[in-house]
Amino acid sequence: MSSLLEQLKAVTVVVADTGDFASIQKFKPRDATTNPSLIASAAAMPQYQSLVTAALEWARADSKDPSKGAIAARAVDRLAVEFGMEILKVVPGRVSTEVDARLSYDTGKSVEKARDLIAMYAKGGIGKERILIKLASTWEGIKAAEVLEREGIHCNLTLLFGFHQAVACAEAGVTLISPFVGRILDWYLKSTGKTSYAPAEDPGVLSVTRIYEYYKTHGYKTEVMGASFRNVGEITELAGCDLLTIAPKLLAELEAMQGPLPRKLDPSTKKGEPKLSLDRRAFDAMHADDRMAKEKLAEGIESFSKAITDLEKSLEARL
Predict the structure, then answer these.
(1) Which domain holds residue 128?
(2) Rounded distance between C-alpha atoms, residue 280 and residue 140, angstroms
(3) How confident is residue 82, by pLDDT bands cut at 50, 70 and 90?
(4) Is the pLDDT of residue 193 over 80?
(5) CA torsion, points 261, 245, 307, 97, in degrees to nearest 10?
(6) Per the structure, how many domains does the chain have?
(7) pTM higher than 0.85, yes or no?
């Protein structure tokens, strides 16, 4: 019998959640995703110092402001693209590259930053069809994605925790959403005092299942990519989801495990609830009522913003 990983690949597009090329080569996913924390971790590895140097040299030549701080800030964007271009030599599909999380509440600056990232990839010979621009699932981020999608720039809406965020993303016509399964579980464990949930009762699994069924029921083209997993049980309960982005540690566990892997999510499903249409006022009201989504979105933006700031300081120290 084949491994759980091979069986999963038969019903779901498997994506590597890492910036480490060696892990990507080992598990042969179709796509790969990165975020500021992953880029910062990879940038600290000895084997990737040539990419860090290349990003700094590029930024030194490109920055209109000669100060170290400005050069380092420019180098952060370039480093994400440098990693993205290297990853695309390994995966046959797409790489997700994230817009600065500190712009999460600014639609205009998010659009500008996304266009800049796409332009950098284009100069490196990479077409926009191989790039997913990652944006936080704030109202402003979703509106930025709506603008970018009309320009043919495909988007991956991340830090997604609430159903209202998923509905707004689908209405905006985004390419892909990344509901954070494990972080939803983290919140419920902390708030309830429980030590665990059975995989089928995991709040993160239930959230992704609800979104998936809603999208398929109403014919949305937006794809669902479960993300941020804490254990293999969360992954196997979502077998059949459009995509799943999985960290190397859990990919290794899936590869080592054998046994039947039943499909849990099916695109023919018609179990979703009635269709919603959200304006800004309705979105804000639902967000205010969803304490988990409100807290985890703010926490995620703060965490990714800190990772970028720390990376900037690290790069500035190298100049």
Answers:
(1) 4-318
(2) 10
(3) very high
(4) yes
(5) 180
(6) 1
(7) yes
User: How far, in Å, CA of 17 to CA of 248, rounded?
Assistant: 7
DSSP, collapsed to helix, strand or coil, labels residue 95 as strand
Asked if 283 contacts 55 with a C-beta cutoff of 8 angstroms, the reply is no
What does the alpha-carbon distance between residue 169 and residue 138 come to, in Å, rounded to a whole number? 10
CB proximity list for 148: less than 8 A, separation 6 or greater: 111, 114, 115, 133, 154, 155
What are 119-128's pLDDT values in tens digits?
999 999 999 9
Cβ contact 91:31 at 8 Å? yes
Amino acid at the residue 75: A
Say which CATH number the domain at 296 has. 3.20.20.70
Torsion of CA 250, 80, 156, 95, to 10 degrees: -60
Pair 46, 290: CB distance under 8 Å: no
How many angstroms separate the CA atoms of 226 and 156, rounded? 12
* DSSP class per residue in 109-126: HHHHHHHHHHHHHHHTT-
**pLDDT tens-digit map of 260-271:** 999 999 998 778
Percent of the chain with pLDDT over 90: 91
Q: What angle do CA 217, 149, 63 make, to 5 degrees?
A: 145
Q: How many residues does the chain have?
A: 319
Directed axis angle between helix 68-87 and helix 36-43, to 10°?
Answer: 90
Give catalytic residues, as residue numbers.
134
DSSP E strands, the chain: 13-17, 31-33, 95-98, 131-136, 155-160, 176-179, 223-226, 243-246
Structure tokens at 106: 């600014």
